[in-house]
């Protein structure tokens, strides 16, 4: 008897709303009846450091850490952070990446260079790759700070959960004064 577990990895830089995105996803999955385990790693996240969230779900999940090469979906909020975590994605997995570059300190200080052509390198390695202009879509939704919800919307097409679970969770977790713009952001991402 198999117990399939689906693995979603979210990566980015501190301050991008990764933790809220992983909370929304976890809540949606629980509402849909899945056992969910989540683990977050914050690397100097308040200073723009790497942040990664592991979300695993299925009938029964025993560990919160995604083994290398077993992520089904990687949702990257920043290009370099997406590229950094590609080894965790299984062959044939999905990669969604926000088309955003945030230069780490060594690059800003001129000690290192930011890798070139990251989207092309990802596309070469993964046939199921979507590059998202999250900032543009968030601006269309009415608030550039909704990029994380645009990306959650894009992710929602790769997670088999009814739309009402997503809508109910957003209504529960987003403050009422920001709800409409977040719902618009989610729907714009979902349409990709």
CATH topology of the domain at 5-102 and 118-132 and 159-175: Pyruvate-ferredoxin Oxidoreductase, domain 3
Query: How many helices in DSSP terms?
Result: 8
SSE-based structural type: alpha/beta
Choose one word for the global shape: globular
Number of strands: 6
Average pLDDT confidence is 94
Order of helices and strands: EHEEEHEHHEHHHH
Placed side by side, the strands forming the largest sheet appear as 2-3-1-4-5-6
Helix content: 25-40%
- Residue stretches low in confidence (pLDDT < 50, at least 5 long) are none
Biggest sheet overview: 6 strands, mixed
Which secondary structure elements does this structure contain, and how are they paired or packed?
Blueprint: E1 5-13, H1 18-31, E2 35-42, E3 50-58, E4 71-76, H2 79-84, E5 89-98, H3 105-108, H4 118-125, E6 128-132, H5 134-141, H6 147-156, H7 163-173, H8 176-190
Parallel strand pairs: 1-4, 4-5, 5-6
Antiparallel strand pairs: 1-3, 2-3
Q: Any key phrases for this structure?
A:
192 residues; alpha/beta; Pyruvate-ferredoxin Oxidoreductase, domain 3; 40% helix
């Amino acid at each position: 008897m198999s117990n399939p577990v689906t693995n979603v990895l979210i990566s980015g830089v501190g301050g991008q709303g990764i933790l809220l995105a992983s909370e929304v996803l976890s809540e949606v999955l629980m509402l849909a009846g899945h056992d969910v385990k989540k683990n977050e790693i914050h690397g100097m996240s308040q200073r723009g450091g790497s942040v990664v969230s592991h979300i695993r779900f299925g009938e029964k999940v025993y560990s919160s850490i995604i083994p290398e090469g077993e992520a089904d979906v990687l949702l990257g909020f920043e290009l370099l952070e997406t590229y950094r975590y590609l080894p965790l994605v299984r062959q044939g997995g999905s990669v969604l990446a926000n088309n955003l570059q945030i230069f780490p300190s060594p690059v800003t200080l001129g000690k290192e260079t930011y890798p070139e052509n990251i989207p092309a390198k990802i596309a070469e390695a993964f046939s199921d790759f979507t590059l998202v202009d999250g900032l543009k879509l968030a601006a269309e939704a009415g608030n550039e700070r909704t990029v994380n919800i645009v990306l959650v919307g894009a992710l929602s097409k790769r997670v088999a959960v009814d739309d009402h679970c997503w809508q109910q969770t957003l209504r529960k977790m987003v403050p009422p004064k920001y709800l409409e713009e977040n719902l618009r952001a989610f729907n714009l991402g979902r349409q990709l």
